């Protein structure tokens, strides 16, 4: 069955739509933190649909909210009409945002959310100049690809914006990697100021940044870096957009939004993924002065539809009621400690926060990336019943981001499987 479906996939879908594993799997059912494929194999899921199934699988409260809307017979109305679920979810997100006068706009994805944020900022500042971080990823549309600082995901050099990239997000391979936190931040701030003074016309629209770089391999800068950047940005009137598509909703454990680790309130935050627990929803929350500053008509046909917003609201309330942020902090610490204690010459760096952990694999004795090791560890973990992700600039970083309902015993099982897989890969390579 899988071979047949794979052949059909290759026949009608793009070559660049990649699949994990030498023998790709079709996931047909799920419960809690486990999924089952079409051949009946069950796995502990430690990638959660790329951080999207944040609550897990088959959650009654979320399924019931979706069923209630389906039972009305109305799957869609568009934003030309009032949508109660949209308003209620927007009110909740505004309340949680920490912004002064927040307004919310819903989209279908993180890509759309970031496109909207860039449109708002460039319109507000009447400038197409944007600052972004090296090793970043912000989506697969025209402007979001342009601000993505990772060649592996940059499909075109054509761009509606003029981008200047700065240091800071990816510390492990930075020229400042050996600096203390304070000196690292100071060096990156100096770089930011020099980039503004030498590569821009000064009237930059915004900086867009991920508090932890997701596709970039969960690269984690020192706390306070983006706050130090914001001090420079304020001197020039440059807006700050925090891309919370992967770091939002408490996944980092210590904070509800990733940007809060940096001691600054941004002008806008984009979100998606975990909010809907699998439903197609994204959006942004921004200061009203920024959100309302559009002088043209604009709507979203599907953004904020009653099914997605109803289900997302249920997911958000579940997350808050069960303190999944606290669970992410507790079990993330357990995983980080276990991985850092594992004796393997393949492991160059273990980083991240909460249930957002990256393990960078390198050639023993140095920092040379070994993407083949990451691919092998993924295969070995799958054979042992664990699904993980990978990423990073060189494709050599294991990415761990299970549902935030993870249990202590499941974390223990995953740690054992992962360390065993790393050790075997080290023996083989």
From TrEMBL:
Keywords: Aminotransferase, Pyridoxal phosphate, Transferase. It comes from Saccharopolyspora terrae. Its cofactor is pyridoxal 5'-phosphate. Pfam families: Aminotran_3. The keyword Protein transport does not apply. GO terms for molecular function: alanine-glyoxylate transaminase activity; pyridoxal phosphate binding. InterPro entries: Aminotrans_3, PyrdxlP-dep_Trfase, PyrdxlP-dep_Trfase_major, PyrdxlP-dep_Trfase_small. This is alanine--glyoxylate transaminase. The keyword Transferase applies. Homotetramer. Belongs to the class-III pyridoxal-phosphate-dependent aminotransferase family. Gene3D superfamilies: Aspartate Aminotransferase, domain 1 (3.90.1150.10), Type I PLP-dependent aspartate aminotransferase-like (Major domain) (3.40.640.10). Its EC number is 2.6.1.44.
